[in-house]
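User: Hi! I'm working on a homework problem where we have to compare a predicted structure to a textbook description. Could you give me the structure for the chain below?
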Amino acid sequence: MDKLKMHSPDMSQENIAKLRDLFPGCMTEARDDVTGRRRLAVDFDQLRQELSDHIVEGPQERYRLEWPGKREALLLANSPIAKTFRPVRKGSLDFDGTHNILINGDNLDALKLLQETMLGKIKMIYIDPPYNTGSDFIYNDDFSDSVDGYLIKSNQRDEDGSKLTANTEANGRFHSDWLTMIYARLKLARNLLADDGVIFASISDEESANLKRLLDEVFGEENFIDTIAVEMSTTSGPKTVNAQQGTIVKNVEFVHVFRKGSAFDKIRHVPLLDGITSFDTHYSAWMDEDGALEALSEKLLGDSEVGSDIERYGLLNRGKFSINNIDKLLAVSDSARLFIDSNLDRIARIDRPPVSAAGNRTEVGRWKLFNVDHRSYYLTTLANGTLQALMPLSLNYRMSDDYKPRFGRTVIRGDLWKGFHQDMGNVAKEGGVAFANGKKPVRLIKQLMKWANNTNGGIVLDFFAGSGTTAHAVLEANAEDGLNRKFILVQLDERPDKKSDAAKEGYETIADLSAERIRRAGKAILEGDCHRDWDRDVGFRLLKVDTSNMQDVYYRADQVVQSDLLAAVDNIKSDRSAEDLLFQVLVDWGVDITLPVQRETVEGKTVFFVDGNALVACFDTGVTEKLVRELASREPLRVVFRDNGFISDPVKINVEQVFRQVSPGTDVKSI
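Assistant: Happy to help. Predicted structure tokens:
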């Protein structure tokens, strides 16, 4: 019976294996300094020669982004770790029924642990990494110490818990440290994206150019879609003083957009629409059913309720109503707004006919539908023989994507996203939790999600979760369109500043705050209007990045001394539960950690059933052949037992034979 390896994949060895398929002559073997075993290695001199059309004699200049620590970051991304996800039921919400995941721990470790279970399954990644302003939290990827010890050691916090400057510009590696931190994580994140997936990365101007170059390198320049400028503030308040003194004040932040590959272009992307605050008075014609044209102003005045409002609010001029006063009317008259909204197909603007309509003729006073260039026109011939085009308001009158519906027509948005400064005034209150550091508006992430066309059941990943805005956005979007997306969030167990509102409200860590926000947001959303197709999943399965469930000796037997042998009788740590073991098996076997888990008692033993029969696990001791046969009769895809969990050696030996007879398609392993 094969054993599960129970650690994250060795990415460097997997990459070498891929190179072997392309360049078998560049492969060699080397001896591992730790284990003494032989392992696959690359003859880099030969590889450089394979990739060159001339003799390579030394280092060559090339176009790429370089910084001190880049090679270390690549090594860090590829190296395996002996860690796992441990389930935390107490902090979860609907642990058994939910498909959403909240992970507490270092996101580098979390991304490594997700490599097999979520490989190629993520439809959208949104990240808002710490901005390199000289005072933000910067990871240095040394978590051998406790989180508190790490923060103190890395000068992010002093002994009494006060926050310190982490990465000042006086540091010679001011940019390099930040790039090293981001690079390793982007390399791992790309592996998780589906072929038609997309990543959105929010950033300010301090590192925008460097982040763009990093994304070019990791995802490929050909997969760059655009950089969106998001209007996060206006030149008002204190900024006005600076502007008056000639300073160019900062109003925008950026979102770099990269696809995984060309498959992203094959799915439909929903155009985003900005509302026009005033009514476009070019839409002044009324199309009668009998083919005649009238003035919209006369139709409004002729309607009893609207006409009454026009007179009541003093909008008549010599008994007539001017279309130029329509904004004033719409601001005060519910009847007028209803009239416009109910007659979008009748209200039109008169345009020149498209060139392709040349030669068309209609009866005078009649019109006919004409489709060209993704637009629909009505063509009509005037009494003098001139052809005209009528464009109904319904073609341009849609619900805008603004933070509240606007009355009037809409325009398709480009890469300048205006108006989000209005959200920033309320962003601190979103989700009902106090978190002042870099919250992004829910509306921003919802609109990115909408444009990306994240499909039904698609998974959204955010590995710099902060206060949990991405989870909030996913839940709101699901409630609106019923697409049942899932989220996976990762947040470090960082303690909030003691002087912050979050600390004053009793949150021990930012991860705790994020969990509470998801609870509150889900509750509020369920109390509102929800799409009938939504599964109403507002829960989350809380997982914690922790050391492996296996004893260290399980991995490093060459370091065991005689005095350690008694402690090594069991290869599993004494403080780990069966559910802990289950989730490490899910990670190691590459089984989706969002799948439902059911616990049953079979033949007196606790047995876990993951998504029915996707995986069956029993980690109890005293497993009998009767139990083995019962589990085999259910024909699971995978089954795993504890290596020392069988009642006798003969039972252990017969396990594979039993499954070969009863359920030959089952993959059987032990830990």
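For your comparison, note the following. The longest strand covers residues 193-203. Residues 142-147, 150-157, 161-167 have pLDDT under 50 and may be disordered. Good luck with the assignment!
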